[in-house]
Fold this sequence. Notes:
single chain, mainly alpha, 5 helices, 47% helix
Amino acid sequence: MYQVNRELKSVNYVLNFFPAIKPLLTEQKRKNILLLNEVEKTFLDMCRFFLNPSNKSFDYGSVYRYLNDEWVVVALKALEIFSKQDTYLIQKPNHSILISERSSYN
């Protein structure tokens, strides 16, 4: 299901917004990670999960705690790209993950 050794569209999507985290994706030096703000740390953790979902986890609670407005939309879009295009967990979607503002929730 997960394809190793290829560029992931979800990671590239996140790196468009946070190019500075690219060298930290494989680096484990805590000192450099401590320089990041909570938004950057959230996306770094998300990308590390995308790159190695069998051995890394991502706490969606960090999206709730540290992201707001457009950053939540970026996170949801990255998760959608990962699920649809990088892992093919969603092969035949019937619904869009991101709901338009005009949609009715009732």
